[in-house]
Amino acid sequence: MVQLHRGAVVEAAVAILDDYGLADLTMRRLATALDVAPGALYWHFPNKQTLLGAVTDRILAPMEQPAAEDHWAERLAELAHRLRDALLAHRDGAELVAASVAARLTASPVREIFTATAQSAGLPAAEAALAADTVLYYVLGYTVDEQSRMHMDSAGALPEDASPLSDPVDASTRFAFGLRLFLGGITARTALRNDP
Q: pTM to 2 decimals?
C-alpha cells in the first residue's frame, strides 16, 4: 500500500471537486478515491473543514505569484482578474473559497496581498484593509453568482432570457466594469486625502 501524503489528499479532493462539485466532496468519497479507510484521512486533516481550507489554499495558490503590473491600480486589477480565473478553474470554486474566507479557514495571503496593493495607492493601513476586503468580496460574490448561473444554465434550470448566453454583455466585460468602479473609488479616496 502506498503511503498517503497530505498533498495527495488535497489533490484528490480537488479532483473530486472538479468532477462532482462541492456537495459531493465528502470524506467517504475521498477515502474511496484514495483506496484508504476514512480514518486514514484524519491523520492529515482533523475534520472536513480543515480539508476544505487546504483545498481553498490550493485553489488560491496562483495568487502568490508576483504581479506583472507596477502601478497599484493595474496591479490590483491584475490580481482581481487572477482571483476570478482561479475560482472559475474549479467547479464550485467560488462557493468553496467564499465559505472558507468567511470562516477564516484559509491560510492563503490573498487578503494581505490585496491590502498591500491598496496601501501602495496611498491609503493608510486601516483603509487599505477595508478596500482590500471590498475588492475581495466583490470578486467572490460576482464569481459565486457567475458559477451558479453557469451550473443552472447547463442543467436547463434557467429561463432562456436569464441564460448567461442571452446576456448582451459578457461576464468578463461586466466584471471588469465593476472592478473599474472600485478602482475609481480608491483613486478618488486617495486624491481627497492628498488634497491640501
A: 0.91
